[in-house]
Amino acid sequence: MSTQDILGLSSQDPGRVISFPASQYLHASTASPVPGAISTGLPRLDEAISQVSSDEPSQSSSEARLGGIPCGHVTEVFGPPGAGKTALAMSVTSNALCHGGKVVWIDTTSPLPKLRLKSMLKQNLDTAKSSDIDNLIYFRAQSLPHLLALLLHPPQGFPPENTKLLVLDSVSGPFPSYFLSPSELKSRLAQAKITDKSQVQWLMNRRWNVTSELANQLMKLAASRQLAVLLVNQTHTKIKGQPRATLGPLLAGGAWENSVYTRIVLYRDLPAVDDEESEMASRSVRYAEVLKKDGRVLTVRSDENIVPFTIDSGSLRGTDTTQPSCAVPQQPVEESFRAGGRKRKVEEIADSQDEDNSDEDFGWIDGDDAGLVEGPADDS
């Protein structure tokens, strides 16, 4: 049965537009004979994303080794600046181009470094083919309306046939300039003396409505066209309601979580070492941790889901470095920091210069960037 038959589209009337629920898109994606996957350039990360269970004897050995970004689904990569998000996206793009597929790259913040991409292609192929880079379709979305218009009301022929990968770098880039934080929005509404409850509620929910519509469209596009959608998401630090500062994706929420099939977080670890040369080497190591696979949330800081790597001349290379050395201890929050706890008197509060290891009282571990990751944050 073809994908058209699964979706219920009649071949006798190809111009007819039919709407149907997202569950049929999911059925179409699972019924596809070989959805495939696109390698990230890191074999260990490919295995962590697409681990094949031993209770599936029907798969051949070649299919069992197949791993990477799954086609037909949405994959999200988030992390702090400089963690290697764009480099990972370009590595996936290079592998997709080398296998003859077309790639659609949409950027909202910084232009695509094409020279680095060509360097990756040359490393994957002994001699770069001119047709490979020609299969890259590049779009520049200068604002959030441009991005929504391109994805929600795409022009004819978008994405083109034989497209294997769609990269959006970054999906969260245009949102901060169009949507204020809840506290700032409430302050603006109070200054404008807007008291109509329906209008206030619409303004408060506007960002989440736009995010939900965008997430659903990306999920439908991936499932209906059997292409891999790779989203680069920025991060923010969440403190309220958390035992310690927590790093999470900027775009989040119920509908967004449902659309993300695979989630990868990138970060660096800063272990305390005495040797300056060893310290510089450790600073160049990055870590890719799989937080969500097959639509299921995984255990945070599990060894099998953490892959160390370095970026060498634009290409990704796996390393033998073990799991980040400074792990955040899983201990309960002290009673003195809970709401309603006893406040210290003025004479009990010492100057900061007299308090040794004062940061440890607040749950911070010196030099531990990786410890900020507690899993996906839900701001809905």
Task: Please describe the topology of this protein.
Blueprint: H1 3-7, H2 22-31, E1 37-38, H3 43-49, H4 61-64, E2 69-70, E3 74-78, H5 85-98, E4 102-107, H6 114-124, H7 130-134, E5 136-140, H8 144-152, E6 163-169, H9 175-178, H10 182-191, H11 197-225, E7 228-233, E8 235-238, E9 246-249, H12 254-259, E10 260-268, H13 276-283, E11 286-293, E12 296-297, E13 306-312, E14 315-318
Parallel strand pairs: 3-7, 3-10, 4-5, 4-6, 6-7
Antiparallel strand pairs: 1-2, 8-9, 10-11, 11-12, 11-13, 13-14
Helix pairs in contact: 2-11, 5-6
The helix/strand class is: alpha/beta
- Any idea what the radius of gyration is? 23 Å
Main sheet: strands, sense, barrel: 10 strands, mixed
Query: Number of helical runs?
Result: 13
Provide the CATH superfamily. P-loop containing nucleotide triphosphate hydrolases
The CATH class label is Alpha Beta
Percent strand equals: 15-25%
Quick overview:
This protein is α/β, with parallel strands linked by helices and 380 residues long. The protein is 32% helix and 19% strand. Strands 3, 4, 5, 6, 7, 10, 11, 12, 13 and 14 form a ten-stranded mixed β-sheet that branches.
Can you walk through the features of this model?
By secondary structure, the chain is of the alpha/beta class. It has one domain (35-47, 66-318): P-loop containing nucleotide triphosphate hydrolases (Rossmann fold, 3-Layer(aba) Sandwich), CATH 3.40.50. It has 13 helices and 14 strands. Strands 3, 4, 5, 6, 7, 10, 11, 12, 13 and 14 form a ten-stranded mixed β-sheet that branches. Helix 2 packs parallel to helix 11 (197-225). The two termini are 39 Å apart. The relative contact order is 0.14. The model is unreliable at 1-18, 28-34, 53-65 and 325-372 (pLDDT under 50).
